């Protein structure tokens, strides 16, 4: 199979790494052993693959980074234009089987993939749709206007994806159920969840002493709650003045987080490591006792699973998707309850029996995240969905 992977909105490490990009990297790493893969997209697509040293793949770059200086929206628009133009000239070899993949529903990736699908209708289309923007005035906790404003645009591409893609990759079972209720066949939607490369934490030895009470692993992004975490940590230091927090990740809130730590008087309690990966990241994770993930609006969040497989119990707000992602090995507080979240951390740090029980659950849960098994399950689901004898993937639902 020749997989044509369109990833035209990538912001690569060390600047950022989204969950969808991680899924792309880990699948390419494994699927490229048996299939030919060509990655198309902006400069960031190749930079992402180079960062993770992916081998045996081809690249077609659609340069657009020189438009960054005009702002993100214009850059996004020009990525889309470049991709649509380029999709007109991509030629599929007649002696190969072909599969088209859009790494996300974002227009610069999805629309070129759909144009390619129209040119080659016999090539199945797979689209990753990992995040649903919240409804206007829904009352759902979240980072605000920047996400809700995207919803009308997303809904337009979502409706096209329902009609045109043979397979949709989503994040959690609840989103899969929504798509099925909107007319998709159960076989044509797969909940990825995410994964962990278990070989890396196993190769990192346990430290003699724990340097941090907790670790945060995610992008410094409004969705992930890093600013809220600093409020939580301020509350914790009132009980444990020496409590130390490691924050692994980079993103648009980097400067704000550091400034807020100074303002709250906890700069000495918080260490910002920026983007880390591989053994370097796991050395930090293993030097902590608890993983804390204070996301305020989330569909999953696979990064924290990297701490579970090291035996770190988790703490988060009780968001419905996180009940699915992390049903065991976690303590949860009501959304927005900073004092409650702080208390969860405090209990794990001070109650040895609770810590031991929760840590044991976390480790067992972490072992279920093996990327080898997850990537194989994804590919098996795709093969089932694109089988010529498969059921129709979409039956419109009248409401």
What features would you describe in this structure?
The chain is α/β, with parallel strands linked by helices and 399 residues long. It has two domains: 209 residues, Rossmann fold (3-Layer(aba) Sandwich), CATH 3.40.50.2000; 171 residues, 3-Layer(aba) Sandwich (Rossmann fold), CATH 3.40.50.2000. The chain has 16 helices and 13 strands. The protein has a seven-stranded parallel β-sheet with strand order 3-2-1-4-5-6-7, sandwiched between helices. Strands 10-9-8-11-12-13 form a six-stranded parallel β-sheet, sandwiched between helices. Helix 2 links the parallel strand 2 and strand 3. The longest helix is centred in the first third of the chain and has 16 residues. The chain is globular and about 65 Å long. The mean pLDDT is 92.
Please provide a brief summary of the model.
The chain has 399 residues and is of the alpha/beta class.
Secondary-structure map with pairings?
Elements: E1 2-6, H1 19-31, E2 36-41, H2 43-51, E3 58-61, H3 72-87, E4 98-102, H4 107-119, E5 125-128, H5 145-148, H6 151-164, E6 167-170, H7 173-181, E7 189-191, H8 199-203, E8 212-217, H9 226-239, E9 245-248, H10 254-264, E10 270-274, H11 278-286, E11 288-293, H12 305-308, E12 314-317, H13 320-325, E13 330-333, H14 338-350, H15 352-366, H16 371-386
Parallel strand pairs: 1-2, 1-4, 2-3, 4-5, 5-6, 6-7, 8-9, 8-11, 9-10, 11-12, 12-13
Helix pairs in contact: 1-16, 3-4, 9-10, 9-14, 14-15
């Amino acid at each position: 199979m020749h997989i044509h992977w369109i990833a035209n909105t990538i912001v690569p490490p060390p600047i950022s790494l989204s969950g969808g990009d991680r899924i792309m990297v880990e699948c390419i790493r494994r699927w490229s052993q048996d299939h030919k893969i060509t990655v198309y997209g902006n400069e960031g697509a190749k930079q992402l693959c180079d960062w993770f040293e992916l081998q045996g793949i081809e690249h077609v770059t659609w340069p657009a980074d020189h438009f960054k200086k005009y702002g993100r929206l214009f850059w996004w628009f020009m990525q889309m234009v470049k991709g649509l133009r380029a999709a007109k000239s991509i030629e599929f070899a007649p002696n190969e089987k072909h599969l088209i993949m859009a790494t996300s529903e974002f227009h610069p990736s999805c629309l070129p993939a759909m144009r390619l699908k129209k040119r080659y209708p016999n090539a199945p289309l797979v689209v990753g749709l990992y995040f649903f923007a919240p409804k206007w005035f829904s009352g759902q906790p979240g980072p605000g206007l920047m996400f809700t404003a995207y919803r009308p645009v997303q809904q337009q591409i979502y409706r096209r994806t329902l009609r045109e893609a043979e397979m949709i990759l989503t994040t959690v079972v609840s989103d899969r159920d929504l798509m099925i209720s909107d007319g998709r066949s159960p076989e044509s939607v797969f909940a990825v969840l995410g994964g962990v490369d278990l070989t890396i934490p196993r190769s990192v030895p346990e430290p003699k002493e724990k340097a941090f009470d907790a670790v945060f692993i995610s992008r410094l992004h409004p969705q992930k709650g890093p600013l809220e975490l600093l409020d939580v940590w301020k509350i914790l230091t009132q009980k444990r003045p020496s409590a130390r927090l490691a924050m692994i990740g980079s993103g648009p809130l980097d400067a704000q987080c550091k400034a807020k730590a100074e303002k709250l008087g906890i700069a000495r309690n918080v260490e910002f490591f920026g983007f880390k990966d591989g053994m370097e990241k796991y050395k930090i994770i293993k030097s902590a006792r608890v993983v804390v993930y204070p996301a305020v609006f989330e569909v999953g969040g696979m990064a924290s699973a990297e701490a579970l497989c090291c035996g770190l119990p988790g703490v988060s707000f009780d968001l419905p998707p996180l009940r699915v992602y992390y049903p065991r090995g976690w303590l949860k507080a009501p959304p927005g309850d900073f004092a409650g979240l702080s208390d969860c951390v405090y209990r794990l740090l001070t109650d040895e029996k609770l810590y031991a029980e929760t840590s044991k659950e976390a480790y067992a849960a972490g072992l279920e995240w093996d990327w080898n098994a997850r990537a194989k399950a994804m590919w098996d689901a795709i093969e089932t969905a694109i089988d010529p004898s498969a059921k129709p993937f979409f039956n419109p639902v009248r409401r």
